[in-house]
Task: structure prediction
Amino acid sequence: MKRVYLTDYEQEILEGKHGEGTRMAMEIVIKMGELYGADRLIPVKRAHIDAAAYTTIWDAGTEFIVYLADHGAKCAVLTTINPLSRDIKNWKELGASEKFALKSKRLEDAYLKMGVIPTWTCAPYQSTNAPHFKEVVSWSESNAVNYVNSVLGARAERLPDMVDVCCAVTGRVPAYGRYLDENRKGDVLFRLEGFDDTWFQDSVDFAVLGYYIGEIVVNKVPVIEGLPERTMPDDFKALSAAAASGGAVALFHAVGLTPEAPTIEAAFQGTSDYEIRIVTPADMEAMEKRLNTATSDKVDMVLMGCPHLSANEIAEVAGLMKGKKVCDGTQFWIMTCETQYNLAVRSGAAQILEEAGVVITKDTCLMEMDEGDRRWEGQNFVTNSGKAAQYTPAINRVKIHMASTAGCVKAAVSGRFSGEVRR
Ligand code: F3S
Result:
């Protein structure tokens, strides 16, 4: 196994001169580096931790985090963190048991002791933690890794849960994978053909495209040619999340839109031995059909905010919900973080939605809230998210209809799915 070169400071940490928690974290980062053939560690200035939800790491993971915190481990760099298994203020109203809430709280307290910025969001790049071009970061949460790598041009890898915590504590990541320029070259060109202006007006199209591409490339680097110039950060968020869950994409390039792809040549780093795939509206429609697993038009839940909605997206939903009510027998949940929620309160969007019967959850994610009670099992969900379309059937045992933002609102108001994904 290749040996990881350590600086004097890193060696000191490994020898325990900076405390037991930090020593243990460094030992794990080095082991991870050895496994991936890294020859050195790279210092970082910021981190984002995925392993926040109790239902992601359960009791064994919690014990590990508590051990680190109790043995002096502190985040060495600016560190944000993913959603929890509970909404901190409204967990009771949202159906969590006291026992479950306390398990989550124990984990939250350990992270706070370590000095995380308690963002509890999976879209930190839209709140307080947006790395700059070429900045090396310690990152996890698959959508966030894909977003900062691709859209911001930072250097990130899909660090495993718990290793992400160790990297934040040591301020180091192993030099491997997408941290290295040579591993950032495109592998497959996806050329969009035959799409008129009605396409890519709503983030659901970006989600479907992301899922379609992710399934094909798995963990290779796709290069997308033909996305419209008007593509917005929220659209890229939907694409990043879907590509990272339909496959395991950690980096994509969009020609003319993302920083490492001003041209096709740049995206492929001057090479020409890449595969070309044509994507047509028929491919997208076939993908939509596959993601739609619900067989009845009845809607039990409309779920938006996977990844967490921005204040901009919340305002869009509020504009569509104004003067309407969520149908009896249907729930409409929007998932976001406290920061974006506060902006939505200031703009008045949150009040419009809450008066209409929409539940806005903060700090959490429906997929992390199931404490084994299978409360959604057998229900029909409508969502605009490719990642939710992948996760909720597996985790929550529900069926899915994909819909645009307007389609989600219509489904919530009528309690029925219209059968149209893009309207
Ligand atoms: Fe975020 Fe949960 Fe989706 S963490 S990306 S809302 S699965």
